[in-house]
Sequence to fold (105 residues):
Amino acid sequence: MFRRLQDKAKSVWGDEDLSCISLNPGASAMHKLRPQPSWDRTCTAAAAAGLLSELQLLPQFSSVELEKQAEAVEHALTVLLDALTNRRLRMGRSITRKMRHTNIQ
Fold:
């Protein structure tokens, strides 16, 4: 996804350096719930919300009100997280990941 954004930026602005985008390699709050595809990947929707917030800072996007869209995505993530948490609790399941120990020999 990031590569496609870089390609688009290069075709539109002639520059693939997207200084407004910061990549966070940490796990998002959504990925502390199970089942999730990977502990070390950030949630795509959370990344999209962050991207919208950061794009709002660019002068050419400031009039588009991307911040409102980012807030809507963040709110939806909060609702989804609450729903998933409540569902797991209702089913008697853990809502946190257990660290897996592997023996490397």
About this structure: Residues 34-41 have pLDDT under 50 and may be disordered. The chain has three helices and no strands. Residues 26-90 form one domain. Helices lie at 2-13, 44-55, 66-90.
